[in-house]
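DM from R.C. (forwarded with permission)

"hey, sorry to bug you on a friday — could you get me a structure for this? deadline for the figure draft is monday and I only need the backbone to look sensible"
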Amino acid sequence: MRFAGIDVFPRASATVMYDDNLLISNRDLTNTLSDVQWVLSPGLTLVAGDAAAALPGSITLDQLRSLLNYSLVDDASKPQRFIGIDLVPNFNLFTDHDEFNIVDYFARLSAGYKFSKLALGLDQDFARSTAKENSVGSRVTTRTYLTRLKSKYDISDRTSVEVNGGYSRLDYETADFQGYQDFRNEDWLNRQLGEKLTVGVGGTFGYLDPQGSASQTYEQGLVRASYRLTGKIDLRASGGFEFRQYDSGISDTLNPVFSLSGIYQLNYSTTITLEAHRRVEASPFSDYNYEVLGFYAGLRKQFFGRVYAGIVAGYDNLEYVFTSSGEGQDRSDNFFSGQVNLEYELNRRWSANLFYIYRQDDSSQEQFSYNNNMVGLQVLWKW
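My reply, with the result:
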């Protein structure tokens, strides 16, 4: 639908799910809470600019943001200017435990603009949501804010520079856990090697301000590469080292960091996805960071034109690091997750998805170890 030059894409989903461990309580307890959860999620995406001509059909904000992974200068066929807004409230209702009833809110914005050699982008996110968090071993409500500013200037047809900035903030709606603010700058020099491969060298400078701990500064030296084979492979990887300093007075640290993401279209009906990472983050507990090392892999297969089967499996290891003088408690978590789903597309507007999710955390502090099973059905409609 189009009104006053703005493309409007409404959508909605309804989900019913049985959850056998609402609070991800310790696996040894016999009185874990279980319930049936009902979720109603109406959504609306508004898009202005010339994106509709390049993205036929229903447009999502994630599609717009994928344009910013590549400079708008690279390809004249891409939209040259656009702005998109996505709004979603989630109404969560529980059959037996109505004390957990809550409304979550999600709002996102993405914009891009092209000059002759310069491309600019802006992403802005806000979310108020309640979810299970492994670190604290329960359901928590958080408010998150995320701002990303992107710029890319083409020095030549094969060489470009990027200057990007970011701000993220996490607040807990309880004083039991600490949130944080993170200010970040990334600078890159990129070189295209052939039609499919682009490499880059860059640096990151950041300032982390946890609410209940001493502040930290960090610098990263990174190299990255992206490989694109149209309709077949999209692979991105970056890696390097992070130097981190602590205002608490402890010694500086040096850690490897990396990220990897890839999509492989095996054939017209089969898609393989892969993601891996190692990073350092502020934990919900004062005077602790954690180092995260993990991966996720997925397979999606199409059958009979309208039926899709998918499986996703992942693993994360979290090593908690004490960031203050003195001695802290050792903690290490091994988190496993898996999901199987079967989706049926009735037509281009209606679809249904039957899913099963398994989550498990094995922690060195036994009170945080749990098992969790969820099974449900989701029905989706989009314009």
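R.C.: lifesaver. The two ends are 8 Å apart (CA to CA).
me: no worries. The CA atoms of residues 278 and 293 lie 4 Å apart.
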